[in-house]
Amino acid sequence: MLGQKRTAQTVAIIGLGDTGVLVASRLVKQFKVIGITTKPNLVSGQELGKRLTDLPWWSVHYNTPLKRFLGLSAVEIIQAKAEWVNPEQRSVRIRLPDGLDSIIHYDYLVIASGTSNGFWRDDSIRSQKEIDDALQETPRALRRQRRSLSWVGVPVVSAVHSTFAVPNRQNK
């Protein structure tokens, strides 16, 4: 009808990692976008070696608060964990940080939940402080492991070396 404003359709995006952030920043130009994320930052999986050896540098470049992305300024970002999706009702049940559940309705759904590797990526709801604490703990844990492994590694290396050593041949 003439003169009536058309309501934008809603896109819900589960996961605001690398892919979710890119998709949200593009779709927000044509849709109402709701981003559902367990963390308030984009915690990149890039440069793992640098992260473990120079965390302050890595944090500046790869641990970015979502609110710093200009392309997300019109995106409604909800920190929560997606618990289930109901395609028939076009809804997602989310668990908020306080433990309460809420329902998000959508016209379109994008699942960009990424991967969980048990090392730095998981689906737990974390605050900025919890992210920072976890980032600090990983290098400490690896240093503790390295000390243990270097002590245990001596007999293992010796055993492997003796198994694959070429016997001495005497000249005849």
Description:
The protein is α/β, with parallel strands linked by helices. It has one domain: 3-Layer(bba) Sandwich (FAD/NAD(P)-binding domain). It has helices spanning 18-27, 48-53, 55-62, 128-164, and strands spanning 10-14, 32-37, 41-43, 63-65, 76-79, 81-86, 91-95, 101-105, 108-111. It has a 4-stranded parallel beta sheet with strand order 5-2-1-9, with helices on one face. A 3-stranded antiparallel beta sheet has the order 6-7-8, with no helix packed on it. A two-stranded antiparallel sheet has the order 3-4. The protein is globular, with a radius of gyration of 24 Å. The chain starts with 9 loop residues before the first strand and ends in an 8-residue tail after the last helix. 16% of the residues are buried. The model is unreliable at 150-169 (pLDDT under 50).
Q: Order of strands side by side in the largest beta sheet?
A: 5-2-1-9
Number of strand elements: 9
Number of helices: 4
What fraction of the residues are assigned to beta strands by DSSP? 15-25%
Mean pLDDT: 82
Distance between the termini: 103 Å
Write down the secondary-structure element order. EHEEHHEEEEEEH
The radius of gyration is 24 Å
The first-level CATH class is given as Alpha Beta
Total of domains: 1
By CATH, the architecture is named 3-Layer(bba) Sandwich
Largest sheet: 4 strands, parallel
Q: Which bin fits the share of residues in helices? A: 25-40%
Low-confidence regions = 150-169
